[in-house]
Every structure is written in structure tokens, then in C-alpha cells.
Amino acid sequence: MAKKAKSCKTKEGLKLKIVNPNAAGIDVADGELQVCVPEDRDGDNNRRWGSFTCDLRVISEWLKACRIDTIAMEATGVYWVNVFFYLQSQGFEVILANPASIKNITGKKTDEADAEWIMLLHSYGLIKPSFNPDTMARKVRALSRHRSAMIISASKEVQHMQKAMELMNIKLSTVISDILGKSGQAIIRAILDGNHDPMSLSQLADPRCKASKETIAKSLEGIWDEEQLFILKQSVELYDYYQTEITECEKKIEEIISKYAAALGNDPERIAMVKKCKGRKNPLSFNIERYAYAIYGVNVMAIPGVNDSLILNSIGELGYDFIKKFDSSRKFNKWLNIVPNNKITGGKLISSKLQKRKNIMGQAFRMSANAVKNQQNEMGRYFRRIKARDGYAQAVVATAHKIATIFYTMIKNQLEYNGNLVGCDEKTILEKKLRRTQQQLDRLKMRQDELDKQPA
Length: 456
Prior knowledge:
alpha/beta, two-stranded antiparallel sheet
């Protein structure tokens, strides 16, 4: 592991010590790599190379000849990925740096200057490594993100369906809450099969629909434009295609996760399943709860708000050993960006707004927090208590912070979920409110008695 920065006392005062003498810096771009090593290792110590695989082999040999042990590079798009893992496979310790934390000093910006600056910072131990999950987790992450992208694409096709029907003055989405439901899909597919009779189409609606058959029939009286029917047909076909591809992607995800779980050796059959209502839209086609138990050793699904989506994201974005890389829940929550970014100057707190940066896991925990807002359990009561005190946005962040802390603690200490430790139950909360109210009444009564004793 690369060493952290250290200082030493000299006659001139405190100075930073070089803790990584055999360090190199790489500035990464799409078509070229700028690599810098210490001046005493080569006459031409700051070189530009290509980014092909053959170039990576040459760079690796050159770095070995220069007696380099550890390398730092900036996370630039996806261009760093192959460079990072190839050099790592060659035995180098590779550090991935957040671009925001290694901004160059003022002056002319060039690739040579950036590579030299990265090398200099790394040699003094001033670069903090970015978090990277293990190999199997990265495979799950890639497929999980791909699945999410296809879900977004499928949702766009639903919008295209709605637009095509709206342009034909078909108001189906007005009277039916979800055109992807049983009634909506039956009517749309009948329209594409050539049935344009409103009364006949309205009979396809499920009896449980809140709208009457007459209202649905009125919404289906429109202008059957040829071009819009063609657009509707292609949108439905594209939606069906994405659904098929999503299912195939989920099969591949399950295949990799099953290998991942088997490699860790926990028995998923010992799990006590949690009964939770799964969402109607885009549910996973396999039981991820058992695989999560095999990977983490505890059933994190027992935490209120945690669902299949969060567990899938956690396996891909975090991996099984993230607790080793975040040695406390405080650091884990800070990485998730669900803690206030307190700015203090002159002993005063001037701002506590969250940083404007995206974190997929942080967003997943916020969505879980939002899901418990109406639930009648300890987490739902906690959400509503914070909301009443500080507001909705603060309640989402505070509840996400609590869920993430419980998630981390359960996995680190191998403890099952215990709702009694989340906070006060509803009865205790009401008792506290009654005591506070009684104290306020007592103070008001004392004040009234004082006023009565005063002379008129």
C-alpha cells in the first residue's frame, strides 16, 4: 500500500518527506499516455506513449527498468480502466486519483506538467486512492449499470407510445393510471391488430379499473392516423425488445453472482427469508436475497427500505470486502455523500450543504429512505420525526444515513437486524411528547399565577 504523507523537522522548519521514492505519474487520454518518472531514473523521464495494448507492454517494461514500484493516475472517463488493470496485473501498485483532488498548480496546463505533478504528489504521499471493488464485483457492476440503461431506454419507448396516442387524441393514459398494466397493454395491442372500435376496445379493460367502460370508450375515440399508428407499433416492438434483453441481462447477472457467492463459501440455504412486497415495475427475475446472504453473511434485506435494487447495486458497486476499505461507518457515509459537508470558519458553521457529486450507492440509499416514509415501522417513524423537525429533504438524508450505517454495521460485525436498536418506539415517543407538553402547561400555569398575584 502506498504510504501516506509525513513531515520532518529541519533547520529551515517542517518539510514533507518523500515516502514513495519509486513513484510514477500517468496523465491518461484517449489516444496517448504521458508517463513521468523521477529524473534520476532516465535521461528522458517524461515520455509520451500511445494507448494501444502493445504500448502498454512497452510502458510496463520501461517502468520496471526505471525501478518503479507504485504508480498514480487520474480517473479520466473510462480511458484509465485498461491502463489501471494492466499495470496492476504486471505487479505494480496502482493508485487511482480523483481529478478534483489533484488539480495542478496555476500555470500553463500541458500533459507533461500534469504527469509530473501527479508523480510529485504521489512521491510525497499526497494522493488519496479512490475506491475500487474487486474483479467479480466489477463484472456485476458493469451488467447492473447496463440493465439500468436498458430500463431507461424502455421507459422512453413508453413515452413515445403516449405521445403517439395523444397525437391521435387517444386519451387512454388519462383514464388508466398505467398503460403498461394488463388493461393498457391489452387495449394497445388490440389497436395495433386493427381493432379501432371504442366500445369493443373498452371491454378489454380489467373489471378492477376505476374508470367505467363508458369513460374508457370515450377516451378511445380518436383520429387513427396512419403514421402515428406506425410509430406506436414500432414503440411497442422496441419496448418488447428491451424487456427481452433485460431478462437476458438478468440471467447473466445471476450467473456471475452465483459464481461470486460460491467462491466466498457461505451457505445461502440457511437464510431466513424476509417477506417484503416487491415493486411491480422492473423486478429482478431471480432471488437476489439468497445470493446477498451468501456474499455478506447476513440478511441485509431485513433492513426497512432495502430492496432488490439496492442489494444488486451494493454487490456491484461495493463488493464483499468494502468494510476493509472503509474502516468506519463515518467514512463509508462520507463516501456515499449522505453526511453534511460542514464548512467552519472563525469557529462558526457557515454551511452544511451536501456536495454536488453523484454516487450511485448514495442515491440508492436515498431512494430506500424515501420508500419508508409511510411505513409503520421503526424506520418510518424515524423518517417522519426528522421530517417534522427539519423538513423533507433533511429527513431523506438522515434516514439514508441511518440505513447505510445499519447496513455497514451488520456486515462488519456479522449481526442480524434488530429493529429495537433503531430508535424509540411509537409509545415512547408519545410519552416524551406528553411530558414536554405537560412541562409547557406547568410553565404557563406558573406564569399565570404570577400575573394574578400582581396588584391591579
